[in-house]
Amino acid sequence: MSKKTIIGIIAIIILVAIIGVIYFLGGNSNTGDETSQTISDSNVRFSNAEENNAGANTENQTEPTTTNEGLKTLIVYFSVPETDSPDNMTQDEENSTVVVNGEVLGNTQYVAQLISRYTGGDLFRLEPVDAYPTNHEELLQRAADEMRSDVRPEINSTIENFEEYDVIFVGYPIWNADLPPIINTFLEQYNFEGKTVVPFCTHGGSGLAGTPRTIANKLSNSNVIQNGFSLSRSNMESAETEVESWLQEIYN
Ligand SMILES: Cc1cc2nc3c(=O)[nH]c(=O)nc-3n(C[C@H](O)[C@H](O)[C@H](O)COP(=O)(O)O)c2cc1C
């Protein structure tokens, strides 16, 4: 092998090593930026919870995560986005959805994700065995039928280690000025004794419609926060700031 060839090989090896180091550092600093952006923009007292809870936002939860408030926090929610396509939405579809980075989320689902981001709590989405229709008229009809007959729609999966959580956020859209029936299934299926329960909702004008009191009446042996959160579907763009200031209020 000539001297030139050897020098050439060494140069290639050094080049590959340099590219590798740049790629590695670049990848890490990206992750760091995303985290610090989320965290440093927030003044919430427990806002660095994410550092302790990598993966806390992943739906659905597996092992309970402890936030840096020292509390195991779970965000359980129900949400029915009326489409999964961000294109050519009807007014009804727009009303029930938020598009975040091209992903279609239900209004309540989006609020639940924000609460998880700020608190570091785990997420769990309540889904019925018999899925709700995404067609608006059919959904209204099914909701009306279920509420008239006071049914308890079966939930398609169970929450692991529910007993280990201290704080349970419970989120739902207001349906016919009340809790959606699947929330009743959830409240009756688990033991809430000694837990702090924090209601939140999205709505089309009714606000919380007395649902924190309804929940407190059902869960007589837990502490149901009455200062629940409500956000109108017409104000979804202010969700981040509204959620953050509400959390500051209830944690201070
Ligand atoms: C079956 C049904 C009943 C509703 N009833 C009410 C109501 O009584 N009051 C109200 O303010 N909004 C009502 N809404 C509007 C929803 O609460 C609102 O669009 C909510 O943000 C939907 O959240 P989601 O996308 O997480 O499902 C109703 C929506 C549906 C589908």
Number of helices: 8
Number of domains: 2
Q: Which assembly state applies to the chains in this document?
A: single chain
Helix and strand content put the structural class at alpha/beta
Bound small-molecule species: flavin mononucleotide
Note the gap between the termini: 73 Å
Q: N-to-C SSE series? A: HHEHEEHEHEHEHEEH
Q: Could you give a short account of the major beta sheet?
A: 6 strands, parallel
Radius of gyration (CA) equals 23 Å
What does this structure look like?
The chain has about 250 residues and is an alpha/beta fold. It has two domains: about 1-40; about 45-250, Flavodoxin domain (Rossmann fold, 3-Layer(aba) Sandwich), CATH 3.40.50.360. About 40% of the residues lie in helices and about 15% in strands. It is built from eight helices and eight strands; from the N terminus they run ααβαββαβαβαβαββα. The protein has helices at about 5-40, 50, 90-95, 105-120, 135-150, 180-190, 210-220, 240-250; strands spanning about 75, 95-100, 105, 120-125, 165-175, 195-205, 225, 230. The strands form two sheets. Strands 1, 4, 5, 6, 7 and 8 form a six-stranded parallel sheet that branches. α7 (about 210-220) links the parallel β6 (about 195-205) and β7 (about 225). α4 (about 105-120) crosses α8. The protein starts with a helix and ends with a helix. Mean pLDDT is about 85; it is low at about 20-55. Flavin mononucleotide binds near residues 81 and 203.
